[in-house]
Amino acid sequence: MTMAEPVIEQKKEIKIDAIDRQILNLLISNARDSTRTIVKKLEGMGTEMSERGVGKRISRLEKLGIIRGYTTMVDLIQVNMPILRLITVKFTSPKDFVARLDEMKQYLTGAPYCDFSARTNGNIDWIELKFFNNHEQAQKEEDLYRAWFGDIMEDYRSYDLDIHKMGWQLFDEDDFNRFIQSMTKKEDSGSSINNPEGNSNPK
Question: Exposed/middle/buried for 147, CB within 10 Å: 0-12, 13-18, 19+?
């Protein structure tokens, strides 16, 4: 290596196996599950482990920083936050764009109703998810938001969402391929999720 060559730090690859993913998915589903409960659920998935073994794996995942914390999922209807709004923004470019974008980011970071915001690539530049108690509240926030930051918005669109699925799971390439192959086989056999027998005219 010459003096002109940069030193590139190699990030240590963190390995997790199928059992780690099973445990993580159970914790994602319910972070309050005890090790005993996790052991029972793993048994139902065909994985035999002791409580001590599960505890050691969870501790290792925490130390590696893979588990960064635990959270609680709530029923949005019961906590009076039924309005989920998706916002997309296409930016314009005034001279003070960087400063104004930073102000918008600070606003969204502090807003209790903003659950997610991100810069994107493609036809839109920004995307957000916001939760509200009612439509009137959502409309009031939208009017103020567009008034405050309209100078950097070329296009603003909002959509109220009817949630079909909310949540996620860990998977690897093998899991992905197995699912796609199973769906392909159903399609090839003429069956479907709603019509698993493949009848052309299900009753």
Answer: exposed
pTM for the predicted model, two decimal places? 0.70
Is 166 among the domain residues? no
- Largest Cα separation within the chain, whole Å, is 76
Exposed (0-12), middle (13-18) or buried (19+): which is 23, by Cβ within 10 Å? buried
Its domain, for residue 119, covers 83-161
59 and 27 fall within a common domain: yes
pLDDT tens for the chain, residues 1 to 203: 444 555 555 556 668 899 999 999 999 989 999 999 999 999 999 999 999 999 999 999 999 999 999 988 888 889 898 999 999 999 999 999 999 999 999 999 999 999 999 999 989 999 999 999 999 999 999 999 999 999 999 999 999 999 888 888 888 888 899 999 999 987 777 665 555 455 545 44
**Same domain membership, residue 146 and residue 91:** yes
